[in-house]
## 1
Amino acid sequence: MTVLASVSLATFLVTAAAATQFRSQPLPPSNRLARDEALRQSVNQLEDQNRVLKARVQGLQAQVKAGEDQSANRSSAVQLVKAQLDDQRVIAGLTPLHGPGLTILLHDGADPNDPSDRSLGWTVHYQDLQDIVNVLWAAGAEAVTVNGQRVVPTTAFHYAGVNILVNNASRLTAPYTVTALGNPSSLAGGLGDPDQLAELKSRNRIYGLGFSWLRSTRLSLPAYDATFLVKYAQPIS
Amino acid sequence: MPSRSAERTARAQRLIIISLIALALGFLLVVQLRSQAAVARTLAAQDDTSVALLINDLNRANNQLIQQGVALAQQEAQLRQALAAGGTDAQSIQKELTALREINGDVPVHGPGLQIQIQGTVLDFELQDALNSLRNAGAEAMALNGYRIISSTPVQSRGNTLLIDGHAVSAPLSLLVVGDPEQLGPAADLSASSLQTRVQVDIQRQTDIAITEVVTSRPLIYAQLGK
């Protein structure tokens, strides 16, 4: 039994060691590793801070709303303004909504590992999400989210290097899920229109991006997780 | 003798089986380590430039969230103060309503910004990219050839015709943007540089731009309030 145990242990160690060595070979020198690690730690810290700040903003929003409700109970004039404010909140995406709609799925495809193909067509780009959302609005969507982030009037999809960011630097990673409330048939019709998203559909066929959609009778969309600050625009009275 | 030989064969077999199991375990462990690395790829395998740009955007977003928190705390304090004094702060509620109406494109606005003239036809995705990039640079209100544009305004091409919320617009295009000109400028320059190979783009900073058009909000038919 001792022999058996020693042989097993030795085989295990040798295999693990060989595999570890295989993994370590391509790694860069240690100072570079430390620098990379520090950069990634900064991202983690900033993303933690981002979550804490959003939670604080949401908490304060709830307190403000409570104060406004109380004010509306005291004065009919305030009640009138408050009703308008609630309508504008719905339009701005500050209210959760539910209803029938469509769930659109998309993920990165397979890297063809083809030196002659440098198009990066196998990855999902921020423009793909932007285009899908645009088609959904055109097809009558009443509210849209991307990976749980509500698309609001200030929403902009953009790149920070290879990262797709939206709404206060929320990082979107594959798989991508776009959810839209509206008439499911109209929304599906918009996406299915051969004149729409032609480039994405062609890449979907070549690289397998899993671009598909499902109709639902009840979808739930969260509210925007922050608020808006207007600094430069003044109303013209 | 035969029994001893059989015993030796059996022992050898056991040894081989256990070695094989150990070998498989060693591989499994490493495979698992490697697949964990693949899952963490989203951040771990990024180039330093991407990570640095992400840090920059996170810093900017976090500063904005801090400012939002300060504004909300102030608003809450004002509301509470008025309530404690037995009244209401109608002004603070009216101010919030106005800000939301501006964001939603529901009221005419004016302010500093850019006037971007495009002397030619652009396609839907080119305009989308430009609007997206301006919005990312803090655009607070935009209008193109008499149509107010917010993020839910569909931009489409039908052949060479550009449609804004279903309305055809033709060259020359005049895009008005209200926001911080310091931030909007570089975003506009970047969009212009990709368009300028085909069409002439002229960007002017203005101290006061008026956007008088408003968005006609669509009523909710399918969506209902609440989760």
## 2
Amino acid sequence: MDMQSAEVGSTRAFRLGDFLRDQLRNIAPFITLIVLVAFFSIASPSFATLSNLENILQQVSITAIMAVGLTFVILTAEIDLSVGAIANATAIVLTFFTLQPDYVNIANLPMPGGIAVILALAACGALGLLTAFGVTRIGIPSFIMTLAMMQIGAGVSAVLVRGQIAYTVPPLILTLGSKAIFGLPWIIVVAAVFLLVAHLVLTYTRFGRYVYMVGGNREAAEYSGVNVRFIVGAVMVISAMCSGFAGMVGVAYFGSAQQNEFDTFLLDAIAAVVVGGTSLFGGRGGIGNTIVGLFVLGVLNNGLDYVKIDSFLKILIRGIILLVALIINVYAERLRTARSGERAG
Amino acid sequence: MALLELTDISKSFGGVQALRDVDFTLNAGEIHGLAGENGAGKSTMMKIIAGVHGADSGAMRVDGKEVHFRSSRDALSAGIGMVHQELSVAPELTVAENVFLGSQPVNRMGIVAWRRMAERAAEELKNFGLDINPRARLGDFPIGVQQLVELSRVLFSGARIIILDEPTSALSPPEIERLFGVLAKLREGGRSIIFISHFLDDILKISNAITIFRNGRKVATAEVTPEIDKGWIIERMIGTGREELEESYLNEIKLDSRPDAAVVLRAKDLTLAPSYRNLSFEARAGEVLGIYGFMGCGQLELARTLFGKYRPASGALEIDGKVRALKSTTAAKKAGVAYVAESRRTMLFGDEPVYKNVSIAVLERLSKWLVKPDREREIAEVQVKNLDVRPPDVEWRLGGLSGGNQQKVALAKWLTHPPRILLLAEPTRGMDVGAKEDVVRIVRHLRDQGIAIVVFSTEPETVLSLADRVLVMRKGEIAHEFAGEAISKDQLLAAA
């Protein structure tokens, strides 16, 4: 199309339709959240209370920390299916290096608390590096690579804990996972710090810009001299580290560590990112979206407990919400590419 | 009589008037060329005819009956088919399956009649002068063959009017000859063809009639007679006074090589089979080296190798006298190499504002950790002004710019910190004459700053307008070098 004729209209034509189409992925989750809050508030008077807000925040905190890492990954148009398994493995490595009560039959290797935490972080970092190596050096699609890592994480957990349950974690982690500061649970603070730091990194750092650019057009990023392999590898490591941390505070939160403890968190974390509107095709979205997505999931999970509903139906409802979010996500992408395509001819 | 008739067709996209009151008539047994600069409206018109877009106002008649297409399927059932520049073939399927894609012949049981299909496909393609195995995988054939297969599919689905969008842009001269033979045969058979092309020589060679667009309006329709030549068309395409540039391609160009300038890039026996073999050449400071060859001659793979995307199987690269193994695009950039790829889509971020597209190549120079959007905007504003990008607004979403302006942005990102070596693949592809002139100006300016520039192109005009020295590649090897002499388009074509 001829730019001259575009200029005749106005240089920065503001058109509501275009704006809504561009913003669909941001607006839809927000409206969903408002509708859910309104619905549950009307359905149950005890829903919209400050103490229940704290409940909701606490309930989504572990998911939130994992979703932070996944936001990086999904922004580069990759996926990480190993977040739950790596959380689990990291948590179990932590308990393995912490002295357990006598009745726990694990051949563990007690270390000072700080060292146990460092070893656990090293473990999830190593798992992340392995994922990064497989994806960027060998060229295994992240979908398949992290599927394998999911099994490897589960395997590490199984070997170390051998069907037992471990209970003790170092005091630092115990505080972060299950204590409160001025009445506010530490775990909410931890999640908020993760979200804030990730937001700052994505918005204000060069690395964050590269993450968006690699997701927006990987080929163009490569032909601009961006080290695409490094960026993709880095987001896989970030994701594994976030998951690992989530696993550690998660064990403190739950009070025990065992196999398959975090399996359901994979779906929740992916759902939070995608429901929030971060594009599955990369390059669009961010931590703001993920926060809205976390609230949608948190309100939904929590609110369904306040209304009289078959608890088995809850699972179905969550599935439907996720499906609708996926449809909106893909649809938003299509609207956008249709608009870009207009000028291609 | 008129087979297809458009009256007073108008179309706008979100406030931008793409077509205004266009009349167009296509007669039976006619090849009708469409010419115009980018954005002149020819693409929009063909999409309306093919049912991709609906017109805002005006009427369209096929065989005198008014039609309203809601999809390309509607258009096809009215006998209008289209072959796009980017072919829509299935390379993994066989030739015969592609010919019959969507309409495989079946037997009474509803099972695909493979043998009948293969026989009929072979027969049909033989009419096109193609004697190929219909059971072979289509992707194994050159693009010219794939195009004819797609054309035969469109014919099989009953099209009487065939729209060809830039059909010759990826073809070698013998392939073009073969295509024109097929088109002439179709014309004799009473089919009508709309032939859209930037290659005016091709239009003049095959068309009976030509229609020229400018700024969304039809400016002329004429029978193709000996009086109508390229100059006549260009005059109407661009208005007045700007034909000098295009005309200069017709004459001989004196090459101005600088054999005494310092060698910046030296390639020794570079080989990456099957793309190219034993390439040895050098590029000098303050020189534009043109590398010309037909599509698929290996030049684009060579360009990607020089930018670290591909690793050569053997041979060596020297930059400023030092041997360099460019292991990645990042390493190449660090070594002072910059690359503008042949397709805008592989170079640019359509969703991002112009300034981020410009600054992406210099972010690491601006800061180690934090981005500095204000600095980025300043940098982009300078480049946007220098390159005359329109509109001159660095916040504008890149995808909203016209193709020529996008191409300028792709170049702009390398100019803030000029590289030692600038690789330009098809730098003027799809640009209108004015934008091409801008690119020539910019490239000359960069050359005069002492940058070694290598231009890779399949368009002789591009090479002739830019290069000081020309290497001609043929099937992966250097076939000829033109230096310090005068050359013309036909000499260049003859060498390739």
